Amino acid sequence: MERRRFLTTLAAAVPFAVAGVVTALRGRDVPAGEPSGPAPGTAPVPTPPVAPTDPAPDEATAPETPAPEPLLLLCRDALGLAPALAGGVAHAPVRVTVHHSAVPLEDARDAPRQLRAFQRDHQRRGWVDLAYHRAIDPAGNIYELRDPAIEGDSSTDYDLTGHLQLLCLGDFDRQEPTPAMLEELARLVAAECAARDVPLATLSAHRDHVLTWCPGGALYARLDDTRARAAELLNVGAPALVRLCGDEGTARIAAIESRG
């Protein structure tokens, strides 16, 4: 009897003992809203610094490449050329070909007069216009000649269909092309190739197509350099062709004739 009363009393006391333990443990919790710092009398654990991270390569801002200087094309009207004659063979340029005039020219001041004289001579031969589409003088000035949509002419016998003919003024069997001429030739080649979707690999010289000395030994020897420079320009963005016409073009031609 006494044993049963003891067990009954013990069973009734257990829940109250467990509740007391839970209450004591809850007293150790950090109340809401208070900082969870270290216990009093203990040193705080330092937080390791966070090392700065470099931006990912694709997040880095690349420097802007400046736009290439435009290529000024002096209009044929400003140059004082006569209108083209009726006729001519229509074509679409698919290659670039370099020529020389085979007439010595040391001073750019004489270039406009020389081009007008060439046109008179070429039209007397029965050609519709100057044989070439563009010209460059020793100072690097670039002139608009025949319409590129019309096939050029030549006193030598080869098929000119698809050739965009670039004329360098001078006789490069007897003189050297100037640095200014070579630089502007490369820029012109790059600009025309980009504008007309013509492969740079098509760049060639007159003598590559027919038996002739044109464009002279000194200029022909620089053709690979011209091709390499044009490739550099195409890789960074070819210059745009900007026609200089009207009063501004006429003033520029007058300045060339007076100062070169």
Give a nutshell description of this structure.
The chain has 260 residues and is α/β, with parallel strands linked by helices. The protein has 7 helices and 7 strands, in the order H-E-H-E-H-E-E-E-H-E-H-H-E-H.
Protein described:
The chain has 260 residues and is of the alpha/beta class. It has seven helices and seven strands; from the N terminus they run αβαβαβββαβααβα. The N and C termini lie far apart (135 Å). Helix content is 36%, strand content 11%.
Task: Name the descriptors.
260 residues, alpha/beta, 7-stranded mixed sheet, 7 helices, 7 strands, 11% strand, globular
Number of helices: 7
Major beta sheet, strand line-up = 6-2-5-3-4-1-7
Give the overall silhouette: globular
Mean pLDDT: 84
Low-confidence stretches: 1-43
Structural class: alpha/beta
State the end-to-end CA separation.
135 Å
**Beta-strand percent range:** 5-15%
Q: Biggest sheet, open or closed, and with what strands and sense? A: 7 strands, mixed
Helix content: 25-40%
Strands, total number = 7
Question: Taking Cα atoms only, what radius of gyration do you get, to the nearest Å?
Answer: 42 Å
N-to-C series of helices and strands: HEHEHEEEHEHHEH
